[in-house]
C-alpha cells in the first residue's frame, strides 16, 4: 500500500515538474525600438479642424533617406492615455510629407502635458522586414493646449450635463429642439454664451431677432435645470456640404463658468436626432431645387 502511494506521489510530482517547465522559461523580450533617425524618418504633430471632434491627430511624416512604407502608428502624446497601433498603409518618398491619421486616448488630467510626445511607427524599408521605430513629435504647443482645454471641459461636464433634448420638431423651414443644462454637482454659475454653427447647419434661439442674447441660457447657483429652445436651419446645399452631413451633427457651444473665459464644448443629439437632422438637410435642399 505504501509502495502504491509513493508511486502515485512520484507520478504527480513528475507531472507537476513537466507543467512547470514552460512557466520557468525566460520571457520573450519585447522588440527593440530603433530611433526613427536610423531608418530616415521624421515627423511632427498637427491637428486639422475636421479631426477635433473625432479626437484624431495627424503625424506629418517625411522620409529623409530612402523610401519607406508605413504600416501603422501608435501615438503616445504626453498627458493622454496611449492607444494601440492604427493601420495606415502609407508610402513615404524622401522630402514629401504625408499625413498619417491616428486617434489619441482619453486625457489624464493628473499628468503634466509638458513632456515630449512620441509615436511608435511600424515601417518597412525597401521590402525588408517590418520594424518598429520611436519617433519624437514636436507639436508647437498643440498637445499642451489640447490637454488644458480637455481638462477644463472635463471639469465643466463633471458639474453640469449639457444636452440637446426634446426631439426635433418641424417649425416651418427649421427644426425646433432644446438646449438643456442639468446640474450634476456644485453650485457654479454656468452660462452658454454662444451657439456655434457647423458646416451644414446654423443655430439660433427661437426668440432670436437680431443680435443673439448673451447669455443664451444660464444655470444660476441654486438652480438645477435651465433650458432654452432653439432652431436649426440648413444653410448649405452644395454637394460637398451634403456629403459631409453625417459628420456635421455635432454643434459647438461656448460655456463660461463663474465668469471665466468661454470654453468651447461639442454637443450632439442622440442617434434618432442625428438621423432626423440628416434627413432634414436632404429634404430642405430638395425643396430649394
Structural descriptors:
alpha+beta; Immunoglobulin-like; 2 domains; four-stranded antiparallel β-sheet; 16 strands; 38% strand; disordered N terminus
What is the secondary structure topology, with strand pairs?
Layout: H1 2-24, E1 34-35, E2 41-46, H2 49-52, E3 56-63, E4 68-76, E5 86-92, E6 98-103, E7 118-125, E8 131-136, H3 142-159, E9 160-171, E10 174-183, E11 190-196, E12 201-205, E13 217-219, E14 225-234, H4 239-243, E15 251-257, E16 263-267, H5 271-288
Put simply, the count of helices is 5
- The rough form would be described as flat
CATH fold name of the largest domain, please?
A: Immunoglobulin-like
Let me know the average pLDDT: 83
What series of H and E elements makes up the topology? HEEHEEEEEEHEEEEEEHEEH
Tell me the number of structural domains: 2
- Helix percent reads 10-25%
User: Approximately what portion of the residues adopt beta-strand conformation?
Assistant: 35-45%
Q: What is the CATH class of the largest domain?
A: Mainly Beta
- What is the number of E strands? 16
Radius of gyration from the CA trace? Answer: 27 Å
Pairing-aware structural class of the strands and helices?
A: alpha+beta
Separation, N- and C-terminal Cα atoms = 98 Å
How are the strands ordered across the major sheet?
Answer: 1-8-7-4-5
